[in-house]
């Protein structure tokens, strides 16, 4: 099978990691894979470092005619069985390419849990006849985008997957304790993500404030990541007088090494396609406390694989944190359940296998 992946983003976030995992598995299976990626992007470097055939294009905006014609020329040269679109911009440019003569089996990945804009152009894009399947990252995303899609048979769900080997042999090395001068008995509660609005770090900070008001446990709260919300988060930390217990580390490239040191993983997002960083916590057998935003409840099942609270419910989150930090039986139960579910449904191998099954179903119908 000949596959072209379109990666339009300059930076590397969760979606790019999923593309990389998918490509790894497809190449291991002997498929012919190529990537069209944004010039000078992190993904271009990834392709170079891993000897993945690629073509760098500008992907400058959703109406970039040079990129659209570039996609069409790539298909004319290679005759791909599937072109997989991994972002809104990739989607727009592939549809634009059809105006220049592109005729291909287009598969779209949908990772975000908010509706399409609903305007005429958006409806045209999502219901274009060359879009053969829309692979949603969760049932919640499928439900939301389904409001736009006329042919519901185009919709399917494939959950994100992670690389369990990435965390094999991981041991607690006290990296954060040593770097930030924490006492051995100090517990660590952390979230690891881009500092974006939908991650709702304001609720994270409010949860810390509520926790410290009621409980006197030795805990430090880590915000690990970087993004455009940093200043507003820092301002809210100062306003809530939680600067003594919250540490913002910025971006770190040693996440697999520091994960085993986390005692509870706290995700406070108001919107998530799936919340796949929770899967990394599962892999490290770290208990999770999270909000029920977007597709998170499809991963974190309350009292089974973690504890859930409504979106922005900082008081409830604080009490869930206290329970998880102090109840050893609960910790053992949810981490064992979570690791079992992870192996059954959320590995990169399962993700790639199910994606390939949808590819084959599309090809068989054309």
Number of strands: 13
CATH homologous superfamily (4th level) name of the largest domain: Glycogen Phosphorylase B
Q: Helix fraction? A: 40-55%
N-to-C series of helices and strands: EHEHEHEHEHEHEHEHEHEHEHEEHHH
Query: What is the top-level CATH class of the largest domain?
Result: Alpha Beta
CATH architecture of the largest domain: 3-Layer(aba) Sandwich
Largest sheet: 7 strands, parallel
Based on CA atoms alone, the radius of gyration comes out at 21 Å
Strand line-up across the major sheet? 3-2-1-4-5-6-7
Number of helices: 14
How many domains? The number is: 2
Span from first to last CA? Answer: 14 Å
Q: Per the principal axes of the C-alpha atoms, what is the gross shape? A: elongated
Looking at CATH, which topology of the largest domain would you report? Rossmann fold
Question: In summary, what is this structure?
Answer:
This protein is α/β, with parallel strands linked by helices and 366 residues long. It has helices at 14-28, 42-49, 65-78, 88-98, 120-126, 139-145, 175-179, 201-214, 230-239, 255-258, 277-283, 314-326, 328-345, 348-364, and strands at residues 2-7, 32-38, 54-57, 82-85, 106-110, 131-136, 155-157, 187-192, 219-224, 246-250, 264-267, 288-291, 307-309. The protein folds into two domains: 2-161 and 347-364, Rossmann fold (3-Layer(aba) Sandwich), CATH 3.40.50.2000; 164-345, Glycogen Phosphorylase B (Rossmann fold).
């Amino acid at each position: 099978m000949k596959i072209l992946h379109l990666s339009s983003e300059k930076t590397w976030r969760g979606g790019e990691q999923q593309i990389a995992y998918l490509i790894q598995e497809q190449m291991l299976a002997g498929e012919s894979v190529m990537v069209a990626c944004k010039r000078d992007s992190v993904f271009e470097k990834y392709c170079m470092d891993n000897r993945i055939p690629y073509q760098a294009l500008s992907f400058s905006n959703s109406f970039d005619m040079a990129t659209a014609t570039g996609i069409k020329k790539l298909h004319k040269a290679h005759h791909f069985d599937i072109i997989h679109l991994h972002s809104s911009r990739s989607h727009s440019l592939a549809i634009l390419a059809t105006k220049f003569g592109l005729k291909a089996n287009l598969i779209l990945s949908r990772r975000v849990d908010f509706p399409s804009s609903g305007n005429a152009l958006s409806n045209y894009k999502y219901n274009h006849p060359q879009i053969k399947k829309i692979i949603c990252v969760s049932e919640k995303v499928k439900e939301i985008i389904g409001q736009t899609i006329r042919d519901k048979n185009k919709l399917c769900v494939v959950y994100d997957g992670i690389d369990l080997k990435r965390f094999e042999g991981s041991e607690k090395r006290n990296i954060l304790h040593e770097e930030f001068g924490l006492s051995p008995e100090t517990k660590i509660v952390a979230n690891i993500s881009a500092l974006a609005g939908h991650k709702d770090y304001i609720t994270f900070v409010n949860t810390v404030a509520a926790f410290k008001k009621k409980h006197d446990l030795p805990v430090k709260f880590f915000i690990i990541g970087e993004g455009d919300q940093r200043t507003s988060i820092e301002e809210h930390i100062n306003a809530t007088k939680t600067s003594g217990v919250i540490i913002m580390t910025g971006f770190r490239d040693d996440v697999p090494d520091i994960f085993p040191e986390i005692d509870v993983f706290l995700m406070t997002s108001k919107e998530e396609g799936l919340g796949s960083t929770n899967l990394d916590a599962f892999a490290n057998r770290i208990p999770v406390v999270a909000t029920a935003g977007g597709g998170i409840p499809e991963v974190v099942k309350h009292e089974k694989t973690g504890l859930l609270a409504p979106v922005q419910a900082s008081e409830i989150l604080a009490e869930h944190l206290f329970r998880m930090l102090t109840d050893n039986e609960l910790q053992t139960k949810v981490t064992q359940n979570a690791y079992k579910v992870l192996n059954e449904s959320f590995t990169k191998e399962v993700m790639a296998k199910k994606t390939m099954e949808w590819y084959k179903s599309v090809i068989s119908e054309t």
